[in-house]
Amino acid sequence: MKNLLVIALLSTTTALVGCKKDKAPENKPAAADPAKTDKPADKPADKTAEPAKAAEGAFPAGKYDIDAGHSVFLFKARHFGAGYTYGWFKDVSGSVVVDGDVTKQSIELTIKTDSVDSRDAKRDEHLRSPDFFNAAQFPTITFKSTKIEAGTGGALAVTGDLTMHGVTKPVTAQVVALGTGTDPWKNVRVGYETKLTVKRSDFDMKFMPDGIGDDIELTIGIEGAKK
After folding, report:
1. Which structural domain range is residue 128 located in?
2. 89, CA 20 to 30 Å: which among 108, 133, 152, 216?
3. Other CB atoms closer than 10 Å to residue 176's CB: what's the count?
4. Inside any domain, residue 163
5. Quick one: pLDDT at residue 28?
């Protein structure tokens, strides 16, 4: 009987020890907590400038004529410290030269000042007068690039001469290359856009300085095509 009791006690002790051993934590490194890991979490890529970078690299080389029907030269000016007056020029022409060497690329634009349109016929006549663009004496606004190089965020840093109201000033703009494609008539197309601010007083347009803002914001979007 005593032997049976000893055997029973030993079996019970062994079972208890075995249970405790099974429940003990294994000596393994803890699994990494994604919220605390030093490795940065995967994030969506910043697509802000990606189209410009990708599109520019894919642009076929050559000379593209500006398609006026798909190009715009917009402006807006502060009006008596309140809102803005908006307008655009309907007649835009010129060319873009694309090259594998960005420094060999070029942009030329010609805008006819009498094509100004601000959705008000009376105001448009005033804008064509000597108080503003003086379309009779200065029939065009022109831009001719003098240097193009890689800009920020995949854009192009385009420097050139802007001539308006008989005055020529150098300007630099970050130009985004939007994309390229081929239309149903087999014309290869390229598109660009930029925004910049110029002072009208720099171009000797100083009418009503207390009512009309000096800073003029420009939005230029051009599409060129070649066969």
Report:
1. 50-226
2. 152
3. 24
4. yes
5. 45
**What b/e string do you get for 106-128 counting C-beta neighbours within 10 Å, with b at 16 or more?**
bbebbbebebbebeeeeebeebb
Place of tokens 């109201």: 165
Evaluate whether residue 37 is within a structural domain.
Answer: no
The mean predicted confidence, pLDDT, of the chain is 83
Does the residue 209 lie in any domain? yes
* Sign of CA pseudo-dihedral 202, 205, 211, 215: negative
Residue 45 lies in a domain: no
Instruction: Give the pLDDT confidence of 94-131 residue by residue, as tens digits.
Output: 999 999 999 999 999 999 999 999 999 999 999 999 99
pLDDT > 90? residue 30: no
Q: What mean pLDDT do residues 212-224 have?
A: 97
SS3 annotation, 130-176: CCCCCCCCCCEEEEEEEEEEECHHHCEEEEEEEEECCEEEEEEEEEE
Q: What is the pLDDT of residue 89?
A: 98
CB 194 within 8 A of CB 176: yes
Instruction: Give the distance, in angstroms, between the CA of residue 145 and the centroid of all CA atoms in the same chain.
Output: 19
Task: Give the 3-state secondary structure of residue 98.
Answer: strand
**Domain containing 159 — which CATH number?**
2.40.128.110
